[in-house]
Automatic annotation (TrEMBL):
This is Conjugal transfer protein TrbG/VirB9/CagX. Keywords: Signal. CDD domains: VirB9_CagX_TrbG. The keyword Zinc-finger does not apply. Belongs to the TrbG/VirB9 family. Pfam families: CagX. It comes from the Bacteria. The keyword Signal applies. InterPro entries: Conjugal_tfr_TrbG/VirB9/CagX (IPR010258), VirB9/CagX/TrbG_C (IPR033645), VirB9/CagX/TrbG_C_sf (IPR038161).
Length: 260
C-alpha cells in the first residue's frame, strides 16, 4: 500500500491509483493540484461550478489545477483525465480552519520500475567488474608461471629480419623500452629496473576485443608467439589498473634506422 508523502516545499504527494484523496481548501485562498510530469490534461470537470472557481495552468511539464472555494463548508469532486490514460479523482472540501495549499501526485509503479532497472544495472556492473578482476588475476598468474630464464623455441635470431616498427603509449613503470618482431615471434623489452614480480599481463587487441596471449619472460624480454598488430599490457585491476598500448605502425628494420 503506497502512502501520501510530504515533498519539497510542503507539497502533499498522493500515490496515483491507490487512493481518492480529500483535498481541503480555504475560502479566498487558492489550492494548487499538480499532476505528473510529461502528461497533458484532456478534460477537467468539477462538480460544483457555481461555488468553486477552477483554472488550469502548467508548471514546466506538469498540468496544474488552481482551485478556490467561495465559502466554507462546501463539498464537491474534481475529475481530471490525461493523454497518458490516467483518471484523477479528488474529493474537495472547504474549511476556515484547515488548508492544504499544494497537492501533487506520484506513480508508485513507475518508482518500482526505476528502482528495479537501477538494481539490474548495478548487478550487471558488479558482475562485469568481478569478471574483469578474475580474468586479470588469471592473466597475472599465467604471466608469472610463464617466466623462464631461457627459451629454446625461438631459435637463433637474424638481426636483418627484425621489425622495430612498433610504437607504445601510456605512462607506467613497465612501459617497454622497445618492441620488435621477426616472422614468428614478438619481443617486448621491459625497461631497466622493471620488477619481474610486477610484470604485466599481455593481451592481443583486435576488433575492440582483447585476448590473453601466451608469453614468457626471458632475460628482461617478453616473448610472444606470432606477430599481433596491437598489444595491451595491463597491471592491476579496476580503477588502479595501469595500461600501456603498443601498435604496429610501419615495417622498420634495425638497419633502416636513420635512413631516408
Amino acid at each position: 500500500m503506497a502512502d501520501a508523502l510530504v515533498g519539497a516545499g510542503g507539497v502533499v504527494e498522493y500515490p496515483y491509483g491507490y487512493s481518492r484523496p480529500t483535498i481541503t481548501c480555504a475560502p479566498l485562498h487558492v489550492c494548487s493540484v499538480a499532476l505528473q510530469d510529461g502528461e497533458a490534461a484532456t478534460s477537467v470537470s468539477i462538480g460544483d461550478t457555481v461555488r468553486w472557481l477552477l483554472q488550469t495552468a502548467t508548471a514546466g511539464a506538469k498540468p496544474v489545477m488552481m482551485i478556490k472555494p467561495t465559502q466554507a463548508g462546501l463539498s464537491t469532486n474534481l475529475v481530471v483525465t490525461t493523454d497518458k490514460g490516467r483518471i484523477y479523482y479528488m474529493h474537495l472540501v472547504s474549511s476556515k480552519t484547515e488548508y492544504v495549499p499544494m497537492v501533487s501526485w506520484y506513480d508508485p509503479a513507475a518508482m518500482t520500475r526505476d528502482l528495479s532497472a537501477e538494481a539490474q544495472t548495478s548487478a550487471r556492473q558488479k558482475a562485469e567488474f568481478e569478471a574483469t578482476m578474475v580474468a586479470t588475476k588469471i592473466a597475472a598468474e599465467q604471466a608469472k608461471a610463464q617466466r623462464v630464464v631461457a627459451d629454446k623455441s625461438v631459435g637463433k635470431l637474424d638481426p636483418t629480419t627484425l621489425d622495430f616498427g612498433y610504437t607504445c603509449t601510456g605512462e607506467a613503470a613497465f612501459k617497454p623500452a622497445r618492441v620488435f618482431a621477426n616472422d614468428t615471434h614478438t619481443f617486448i623489452q621491459l625497461p631497466p629496473g622493471a620488477s619481474a614480480s610486477d610484470a604485466p599481463a599481455v593481451f592481443n587487441v583486435s576488433n575492440n576485443e582483447t585476448e590473453l596471449l601466451n608469453s614468457r619472460l626471458v632475460n628482461g624480454y617478453y616473448i610472444i608467439d606470432g606477430k599481433p598488430a596491437k598489444l595491451s599490457l595491463v597491471l592491476g585491476v579496476g580503477a588502479s589498473a595501469q595500461t600501456v598500448k603498443c601498435q604496429k605502425s610501419v615495417p622498420n628494420s634495425l638497419f633502416s634506422w636513420g635512413t631516408k
